[in-house]
Amino acid sequence: MLVYPHPDPVAISLGPLHVRWYGLMYLVGFLAAWWLARRRAASPGSTWTPTEVDDLIFYSALGTILGGRLGWTLFYGTERILEDPLSVLRIWEGGMSFHGGLIGVLLALALFASRRGKLVADVFDFTAPLPAIGFGAGRLGNFINGELWGKPTDLPWAVVVDGVPLHASQLYEAFLEGLVLFVILWWFTAQPRPRWAPSGLFLACYGVFRFVIEFVRVPDANRGYLFLDWVTMGQLLSLPMIVAGLWMLVVAYRRNQPSGNFA
């Protein structure tokens, strides 16, 4: 078993300024998404330009940060808002929700599509493989912060934290939601697919991965298990993603509309 080394969550300190590893992971995610999008836009037959990619990442970053923060305060930190309404603005204190970030990104991408004269479906499909590297990096940031641990276990790959062997659920998520999700979607979107199919596959895969990992992840202390002593908020929020993703895949292949991301 690996003993958790309790790494310093602060990567760089410059006087009163402290740059945390978790914040740097967001930067890694956005840079990776930008590089991958530029590479995909440069592929033969792509209908995307480098300038459109730059604007896409800008809109996505705003949607991720604002949606992630607001989502966390609504899904997991309601009591904190009631006690201190201004806490929603103090992003540096921590607290980000994937599902809130997803909603924020979808709204931002819809605005981008409207302003660029693109179909929302094509923008969603083009973006589908881009965030996975950021998901993985973010979960590594959670591991460095020593948060979101899993349940106690005696499995040989457990991580011993203060004498207790635990599931490193952050690393499980980094592997599934990061590496595996990226490989699946990057391969799937390398050639033209029916409109809405990449978006549906993204929702279905992420939802399944998150739903499964929640079985070994300890729920937030202020939420606990919602019912049946095993259903968590993460599972409740992931289930609609799975249903919507599968439905979108079925509809996409039935309609078989060509993607607007390829000429």
Tell me about the largest β-sheet: 3 strands, mixed
Q: Averaged pLDDT, please?
A: 89
Tally of separate helices: 9
Spans of 5+ residues with little confidence (pLDDT < 50)?
Answer: none
Could you characterize the architecture of this molecule?
The chain is mainly alpha-helical. It has one domain (2-191). Helix content is 59%, strand content 6%. It has nine helices and five strands, in the order βββααααααββααα. It has helices spanning 21-41, 50-75, 78-83, 98-116, 120-127, 132-145, 169-188, 197-213, 233-255; strands at 2-3, 10-14, 17-20, 159-161, 164-166. A three-stranded mixed β-sheet has the order 1-4-5, with no helix packed on it. Strand 2 and strand 3 (17-20) form a beta hairpin. Helix 1 (21-41) runs antiparallel to helix 2, helix 6 (132-145) runs antiparallel to helix 7 and helix 7 (169-188) runs antiparallel to helix 8.
